[in-house]
Amino acid sequence: MNILYDDNMPYAKEYFRGLGQALPFTAGALDNTLLANCEALLVRSTTKVDAALLNEAPNLRYVATATAGFNHLSLTDLTARGIHWYSAGGCNARAVAEYVLACLYVLAQRDGFLLSNKTVAVVGVGNVGSTLKSLLQSVGIKVIAYDPPRATRDPAFISAEFSQVLKADIISLHTPLVKDGDFPTEHMFDASVLETLGPQQILINACRGEVLDNAALLALMRKDQSSMPKVILDCWEHEPEIDRELLPYITFASAHTAGHSLEGKARGTDMVYADLCRFLSLPLTLTLEDFLPVFSLSAEQTQKLHDVSASESTQTIVCESIKCMYDIENDDSFFRRYMAKSHSFSELRRNYHVRREWPAAKIAIQNKKAASVLGELGFKLANDSK
Q1: Using CA atoms, how far apart are residues 283 and 188, in angstroms rounded to an integer?
Q2: Cα–Cα distance for residue pair 94/130, rounded to 1 Å
Q3: What mean pLDDT comes out for the span 13-24?
Q4: Is 45 annotated as a binding residue?
Q5: Are 206 and 96 in contact (CB under 8 A)?
Q6: N or C: which end of the chain has fewer CB within 10 A?
Q7: 251 labelled as ligand-binding?
């Protein structure tokens, strides 16, 4: 089988070379001569698979995206041509959930509030929302779960009312982009909804940019920022051509990289590999554990956690532990500096640094309560932390 894979898929060469002739391509520079003979096309969200591309690939039988979202795939065209398609739903769920929690713990420390006293509304309780909900509840944070479409499909799931969402201390968006039907999400948070929120609230968008009306948000912020909630944006309307005038009003900003952990991206590759093997009726011979490198904190980080865990509050210890794995303030600062000089939002995403998920870390924490919280969040605890 002739396979083309995005060169930004971790371990793709190792996964796919045993399944046929596997060649890499760079998003935005897909060679039409390669497409002519391609039978399996493996992409990320930066490659749009539409009728124009399919016209260049007459032998194509299989398309997969190593991402949870699949708005970049024209399902109508794929189905019409009888091409099997697959998306790696849930591959980055933990990474996005960790991003949200990292933002909240840092913001809680910076602004002097107890996260454990807050209520979080999770809007969209699919792979990401369910993971976030589980992590929040595991450490005793109250969650309001809002997902009417899921409630219609799953009798066991009871969705909150939207009015309850708007009263929550923190609102975190994790819906797909749906433009029509009974439950559209495009501009779910438009001017009329945004105006009901207040400065004591936090609004996070880590799903699709169009779920939150960026133009309306900018207009309201310009009018009276003091009456608006704190806003954390990982996803922006019109990516990669985002409205940079929004940046000064955003509390934490990032380049649609909430899900860009090494595990999240590699898990996407692994899931595509598994589905392609099923498509070809081949046995699975590789697993994610075959590739992920061993992770360890630096000596400096280890010493810092040792020092802080003896005397600080539980929230401080948890926050500092999270920052050893991922510091949103660093991403935010870099993003602002980069976007002040460049329009290359896509390039920033492509060259994003390696970030590991919390279960990769093994840490020693003296404070038993903090160690318990970190254990619930997925950190591995060294023996001397017990």
Answers
A1: 43
A2: 10
A3: 96
A4: yes
A5: yes
A6: C
A7: no
Q: Is 67 annotated as a binding residue?
A: yes
Residue 386 scores a pLDDT above 60: no
Fold of the domain built from segment(s) 93-253: Rossmann fold (3.40.50)
Q: Which CATH number fits domain 299-385: 3.30.1370.170, 1.20.1250.20, 3.90.180.10, 3.40.50.300?
A: 3.30.1370.170
The reply, when asked if residue 384 is annotated as ligand binding, is: no
Spatial neighbors of 104 by CB under 8 A, at least 6 apart, are: 115, 118, 120, 170, 202
For residues 19 and 280, the answer to whether their CB atoms sit within 8 Å is: yes
Catalytic residues: 208, 239, 256
Q: 182: buried, middle or exposed (CB in 10 Å: 19+, 13-18, 0-12)?
A: exposed
Model pLDDT for residues 324-373, shown as the tens digit of each residue: 999 999 999 999 998 988 777 888 888 888 899 999 999 988 899 999 99
Q: What is the CATH number of domain 2-87+261-290?
A: 3.40.50.720
pLDDT tens-digit series, residues 57-76? 999 999 999 998 898 999 99
At residue 233, φ and ψ (nearest 5 deg) are: -120, 120
Residue 31: what pLDDT? 84
The one-letter code for the residue type at 333 is S
Q: What is the pLDDT confidence band of residue 383, given thresholds at 50, 70 and 90? A: low
In the chain, domain spans: 2-87+261-290, 93-253, 299-385
- pLDDT band (50, 70, 90) for residue 376: very high
- In whole angstroms, give the CA distance from residue 113 to residue 212: 26
